[in-house]
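Can't paste images in this forum, so I'm doing it all in text. The chain is below; anyone willing to post the predicted structure tokens underneath?
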Amino acid sequence: MEKQGTILIVDDNTDVLLAAKLLLKQYHKKILTTDNPFDVEGLLNTHKVDVILLDMNFNRDAISGQEGFYWLKKFHEQVPSIAVVLMTAYSDVQLAVEAIKNGATDFVAKPWQNEQLLTVIATALAHAQDKQAINQLSRQTQGLSQALSQPQSAFLGQSDAMLRVFDTLNKAAKTDANILITGESGTGKELTAHAVHQQSTRAHMPFISLDMGAVSGNLFESELFGHKKGAFTDAKADRVGRFELAHGGTLFLDEVGNMPLDQQVKLLAAIQNRQITPVGGNHPIDVDIRLVCATNEALPQSVMDGQFRQDLLYRINTIEISLPPLRERKEDIPLLVDHYMHIYQQKYRRELTLPRSALSTLCEYAWPGNVRELAHTIERAVILSEGSELAIHHVLVAPHVSASTQPTSLQEYDTFDLDELEQRAIRAALKHHQGNVSQAAKALGLTRGAMYRRLEKYGL
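Text version of the structure:
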């Protein structure tokens, strides 16, 4: 049978320490001993102790057991989930009852019977493991209500390109393989991650997401791994990280390609070890998650450029799901338009029809912001339409830019520099939306975090 648990024996009699250690080490993974209860705080900081076997009297001639009650309270304050078994040579029924009332798991009289001590410690270990599981579940619930209450959009498509996506998704979702979702901004990477979770065996457990592009460097570990109260200046209370919140379920990391190298190292360690340690904490926490990542960056090129770790790419990319841009699946546009019209007509209490000319315009448009841009366009049109028909000609960001009017040859551009082209697009979007960064970001199919990074990059 596999040995389990770490047992700490605290007694001022070295013979007792030796006898208990020789007996217990045959059945448990690690045995720690000390003859001074003042050493226990340090031991609990450096070891994940499951059970403490604690003497009740440390001063010569003391028989009241009050010292044991004092240390019992101190140890539970430090590690609430720990199981404490009290022992004394001066046992009586009343003292045993008082020990249990004060939070002891059990009570042992010295000298003990070996079988009795082994049974008591085994029961205490099971009790401690149950308390640890309950404590972790309780910590998870602290941050789940908001995540679980977020409404999710439908994941739609009937084109050949999307049918291939659905086929890969259906095969991969049933496994626990890590998945990397790639595609341009606005193509539905988060919806794909939700679909993976909903079709997996973890569907009844949490789906937790984090936009890595919006996490500042000094908050990275706190966001992912959590922190303990007092770990840094603004740490007013314990915080549960996203890894622990997602325990048993799915963790979705969006814009993973924007992570600095130092953060990549820490993420890789957490994935490999399946453990995290909160900032300011001493004990690692086991986590069981299904990892789904997304990026609009070309990660293989980032690896070649030294901007992304190859070993991390291998870890997150067991299966890749590549989402096509909307311009490559135009046959899905009528389906998507109908879907978003239904949503926003209900939301804004409108009843509108869709003219054939409007649908034709929507199908011809290039959609640089992909499905996200289409959804926002339909929402604006529903709000601003004055008659009984959906009017889209005033709401497209650049209605003259359609698939049929885009340049078909690079010679038609006056520059081939991608940074210059991106700057122009950002300036045009900001001008169109009168400096509103959020609206400009939506029009470009970017998150606010990605937009601000580009503004800083180009000094805009």
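Residues 142-152, 398-413 have pLDDT under 50 and may be disordered. The radius of gyration is 30 Å.
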